[in-house]
Amino acid sequence: MVKFFSHVVAVATCAGWLATGAWAQTPAGNVQAGQSKAAMCIGCHGIAGYQSSFPEVHKVPKIAGQTAGYLQAALLAYQTGERKHPTMRGIAGSLSAQDMADLSAFYAQLAPATTVAEQAPAAPAKVQALLARGGCVACHGANYNKPLAPSYPKVAGQHADYLYVALKSYQVQDNAVVGRGNAIMGGVAKQFTLGELKAMANYLGGLSGDLAVVPQSRWR
Question: Closest Cα partner for 107 from 42, 201, 25?
Fold first, then answer.
């Protein structure tokens, strides 16, 4: 297990350097332009408690306050099919690189100002062991709210049911409509049972963090 964890950290570190370089080469996002383009996002991400029914019922993710680099990376993954989700692929497929940068810049700065603890409250011993096994803090940072690379997400305070569905999707293989192809997260997620993934998701979802649902009107 120590060998596996060391491998994950090494791969993640290398990927972080690559992601940082790639992120630096993407177009600069414009917040005002992103706000004008966000109408397609509001119907799901701008409604508190809104739920998706694919691939199972769960709350759509909080994206206000998320890192801009991660939002761009996620949209690109939906566009290329690395992430399989019919609705999100349809939306991402209509976006240019500049659109993605603008939307990401807008949502990254949208969350209300909050004070977030620098250190997460202690997890139950079983969950602590699971998070350590996955090396989660190595990418998601202090309190799982300070990612170590621009394209890594904040996960503290994200909807627990969404985190669970997302983690499960990294275990899916050879499915035309469900699954995520990220090799690092696939290697991490596949070592856990569904019960263990749910335990981690519930803990991470209960933390304080920058992520929020900010209600928005289509009629601005």
Answer: 42
Q: Supply the pTM of this predicted model.
A: 0.87
**CA–CA distance, 63 with 58 (Å, rounded to integer):** 15
| Cα–Cα distance measured from residue 51 to residue 58, given in angstroms and rounded to the nearest whole number | 5
Instruction: Respond yes or no on whether the N-terminal peptide bond of residue 124 is cis (omega within 30° of 0).
Output: no
2-205 has which CATH code?
A: 1.10.760.10
Residue 186 falls in which region: left (phi positive, over 0), alpha (psi -120 to 50) or beta: alpha
Model pLDDT for residues 117-156, shown as the tens digit of each residue: 667 788 999 999 999 999 999 999 999 999 999 999 999 9
Q: Is 143 left (phi over 0), alpha (psi -120 to 50) or beta?
A: left
Per-residue tokens: 218? 């289509």
DSSP codes of every residue in 110-139: TSPP----SSPPPPPHHHHHHHHHHTTHHH
83-84 and 179-180 beta bridge pairing: antiparallel
User: Could you read off the pLDDT of 84-100 as tens digits, one per residue?
Assistant: 999 999 999 999 999 99
Q: Give the closest residue to 189 by CA, choosing from 173, 203, 212.
A: 173
CA dist 125 and 79 (Å) reads: 39
Mark residue 76 as left, alpha or beta (left: phi above 0; alpha: psi -120 to 50; beta: remaining).
alpha
DSSP three-state, residue 175: coil
Q: What is the spatial distance between Cα 137 and Cα 127, in angstroms, rounded to a whole number?
A: 13
